Amino acid sequence: MNLDLTPEELAFRDDVRAFLDEALTPQLREAGRRSTSVFTDRDFSMPWQKILHAQGWAAPSWPVEFGGTGWNDMQRYIFQAECARAGAPGLAPMGLRMVAPAIMGYGSEEQKAYYLPRILSGQDYWCQGYSEPGSGSDLASLQLKATSDGDDYVLDGSKIWTTHAQFANRMFCLVRTRFEGKPQAGITFLLLDMATRGITVKPIITLAGDHEVNQVFFDAVRVPKTGRLGAENDGWTVAKYLLEFERGGGSAAGLKVSLARLRRVAAAEGTLDDPAYRRRLAEAEIAIEAIEMTEHRVMSALSSGKNPGPASSMLKTQGTEAMQRLDELAIEAVRPWSQVEQRQARAPASNIEPVGPDHALQAMPRYLNNRAASIYGGSNEIQRNIMAALVLGLR
Ligand SMILES: Cc1cc2nc3c(=O)[nH]c(=O)nc-3n(C[C@H](O)[C@H](O)[C@H](O)COP(=O)(O)OP(=O)(O)OC[C@H]3O[C@@H](n4cnc5c(N)ncnc54)[C@H](O)[C@@H]3O)c2cc1C
To answer: 99: which of 3, 62, 113, 172 fits an S-S bond (Cβ 3.0–4.6 Å)?
Structure first.
């Protein structure tokens, strides 16, 4: 695969660079650089999305009819790589990358016309209501009950690990509409308004000290049936389709930036003098190169609005494991400072004086936060099961 850029692609890259130079404020760059999670703080991701939207670049992988850019695979890749290189904040994936393709694939014309422009402009902020206490890997066992009552469903139960539910005004949610028969055949996919009476959001503070996830409680919550995506009891089909988009998506561009940063940190700390450390860094680099090639192969499926299929499981597994490998190497490089900096990151508003170099500040919070990457979106063990069944035929 030849990844050398043609003169036209180089010109496109320069246009993107010029735009990013102009549009990324120092605050946005700093937020991107300091972020210790794949989920950038909403106060930075949404202003950045609005700037991109004004430029027509908020959703490069969407079909043009819904507001995509019409870029080819290489242009989208260049854009992604340049955003990572410039330190742009990440965009929240739940709307643009997850529920939007599901609405395009399964929504009515009214649903597409209503929701997609609001997702693109950043008017709506979405969260994902899949997991429940007791239903994670075995998602089809979910129990949140939806009782049909006239034009509404009435929801009782709870969702857990709901990322950014504290910010979201919308949730896409899996509910149980039938209790008998095969569990997968009794699930319905709903789009709901988080301001509806009876919804309570309670924070869960992670090991890294972040408030990213929540438990969401539903007490007789009325959701209009017009919010249903797909047919009643056919939500499993929509849910699986959406998960392929959640698991797919690019990561090599961001990993390459992290690798370059790690090299600089390791050089500054003297860790790079150790040949064993350099060997592990080289192994990480090889893994990232392989991910980049795989991404190029599946990108064309994503670009045409098609689902990426089981390749998304491969990318999710490889991408998250490479990320964790870089985190471990970063901790090794800044070892004397990592514990101190973790204490500071947990209490940013306190009066603890910063100790150690600036480059050590994010190492431990990032390491802790990214432990979750091989769990959310379906754990990597589950991804390996999917690859065994769908790619290798080992059911
Ligand atoms: C930071 C974070 C954010 C999240 N955000 C969201 C969100 O926004 N919305 C949402 O709906 N969910 C979210 N999740 C939930 C996530 O999808 C689940 O945690 C995940 O699917 C695993 O489910 P579980 O936690 O119930 O673990 P379990 O299913 O109990 O699994 C426990 C362990 O057993 C292993 N295991 C289970 N079954 C098998 C099997 N068949 N074969 C091999 N190994 C197996 C798993 O790999 C795991 O290591 C989030 C999770 C985290 C950590």
So the answer is: 172
Q: Looking at the chain, how many residues does it have?
A: 395
Catalytic residue among 82, 212, 244, 246: 246
**Is the pTM here over 0.70, yes or no?**
yes
What's the pLDDT tens digit per position in 314-365?
Answer: 999 999 999 999 999 999 998 866 665 454 554 444 555 666 777 777 888 8
The CA R_g of the chain, rounded to the nearest whole Å, is: 21
Give tens-digit pLDDT for 253-306.
899 999 999 999 999 989 999 999 999 999 999 999 999 988 888 776 655 556
CA–CA separation, 293 and 258 (whole Å): 18
Who lines ligand 1 at CB under 6 A?
Answer: 127-131, 136-137, 161-163, 213, 372, 375-376, 378-379, 381-382, 385
Q: What is the DSSP string of 359-388?
A: GGTTHHHHHHHHGGGGTTTS-HHHHHHHHH
φ, ψ for residue 148, nearest 5 deg: -70, 130
- Residue 370's region, left for phi above 0, alpha for psi from -120 to 50, else beta, is alpha
Quote the strand ranges of 227-297, DSSP E: 228-229
